[in-house]
Each structure stands twice: as structure tokens, then as C-alpha cells.
């Protein structure tokens, strides 16, 4: 069986902004409706989000259930106009701004409780697996962004101090030091920041 050296295919990125978004209470409400309804709703919602990717120059990494993951500063347009991964050492100075602009999500027209977490830092990207291989991101930056989302208040964007420093023009509200269990860099109880999700006017349904 052919085996590729994933280490040689991996790319180290010094600074990428990672965003996770999900819908509070979605998992429990999912049990109350037919699967076809859930699929139709998420398809329409994510189609709305997808339309913003190229507008703000961010890359959709994946969706898992109601969780939507985006990266800024990871992908660029090459000389022929095709998408390609930024090489080692290349940093998009607007990587956090792009993700924050995307984070001001469209108004879904539904009483959704969306929460968003963002963190900026180093990651490693690469393709893993031989059956249905996937382009994935690895590193503590990904884990921290996920924890920012899981500890966010519904209707807010929750960011780390590292990310806030890259987005100093935004109006942030300090959390007073939310404890993010298991977080590496920054430690427990470090200052976090919240920003209301400023929705744009187009709906689902």
C-alpha cells in the first residue's frame, strides 16, 4: 500500500486565526425534529455563511454538526488565481481582521443563540489519511479557539488576549478572567474579551 510521508507534506504557519461557531442548545433540540429538517436547516444556514468566505478572504476548514470552523491567514490566491496554502514563514498581517469581519455573521432570521470563539497563533496544516483524505489543522491554537467558543456567551464573540491585541479597533468587553480548562499558552484565568455579534440583514427560511 502506498504511504506518503505526512511530515514532509506538513506546513508550519506562524500566525493563523481560527474561528469556531456553533448554536447553543442545538444538540438537544436536534432530538425533537426529523433529521431531514435538521439537514435542510443547516444546509441553508451554512450556505449563507459560505457566501461570506471569499468576501473576507477566509477558508472553511470543516463543519461538524452545527459547528463551523474557519481559518484566516491560511490560504492565498496564487499568480494564476487558484487557492494555495501560505508557505512557511509567510504571515498575512490581516489574518485576524479577516476572521473577525467574517465573525459578524448574517442575521439568520431565526431565534438562534450563536456563540463564536477566535484565537490567533501558530498551526501546522497537512493532509491526513488515505481514504477520503482531509486537509486538517493541528496545534494548541486550534484547541484554544475551540475552548473560546465553548466558553462564550450566546450572541457574543469570545477571543483570547493574543487575538484582542490584533483587533484593537474593536469594542471589547473584558470577561474578568474566564477559566479555560486545559488551555496551554496564556494559562488559566487569563483575561478574555467579548464582542457582540453584529448581524447583517438576510435570513434563513
Automatic annotation (TrEMBL):
<dbReference type="GO" id="GO:0005886">
    <property type="term" value="C:plasma membrane"/>
</dbReference>
<dbReference type="GO" id="GO:0035556">
    <property type="term" value="P:intracellular signal transduction"/>
</dbReference>
<keyword id="KW-1133">Transmembrane helix</keyword>
<dbReference type="GO" id="GO:0004016">
    <property type="term" value="F:adenylate cyclase activity"/>
</dbReference>
<dbReference type="GO" id="GO:0001653">
    <property type="term" value="F:peptide receptor activity"/>
</dbReference>
<dbReference type="GO" id="GO:0000166">
    <property type="term" value="F:nucleotide binding"/>
</dbReference>
<dbReference type="Pfam" id="PF00211">
    <property type="entry name" value="Guanylate_cyc"/>
</dbReference>
<dbReference type="GO" id="GO:0004383">
    <property type="term" value="F:guanylate cyclase activity"/>
</dbReference>
<protein>
    <submittedName>
        <fullName>Guanylyl and adenylyl cyclase family member</fullName>
    </submittedName>
</protein>
<dbReference type="GO" id="GO:0007168">
    <property type="term" value="P:receptor guanylyl cyclase signaling pathway"/>
</dbReference>
<keyword id="KW-0472">Membrane</keyword>
<comment type="similarity">
    <text>Belongs to the adenylyl cyclase class-4/guanylyl cyclase family.</text>
</comment>
<dbReference type="InterPro" id="IPR001054">
    <property type="entry name" value="A/G_cyclase"/>
</dbReference>
<feature type="compositionally biased region" description="Basic and acidic residues">
    <location>
        <begin position="185"/>
        <end position="194"/>
    </location>
</feature>
<keyword id="KW-0547">Nucleotide-binding</keyword>
<dbReference type="InterPro" id="IPR029787">
    <property type="entry name" value="Nucleotide_cyclase"/>
</dbReference>
<keyword id="KW-0812">Transmembrane</keyword>
<keyword id="KW-0456">Lyase</keyword>
<feature type="region of interest" description="Disordered">
    <location>
        <begin position="175"/>
        <end position="195"/>
    </location>
</feature>
<feature type="domain" description="Guanylate cyclase">
    <location>
        <begin position="17"/>
        <end position="149"/>
    </location>
</feature>
<dbReference type="InterPro" id="IPR050401">
    <property type="entry name" value="Cyclic_nucleotide_synthase"/>
</dbReference>
<dbReference type="InterPro" id="IPR018297">
    <property type="entry name" value="A/G_cyclase_CS"/>
</dbReference>
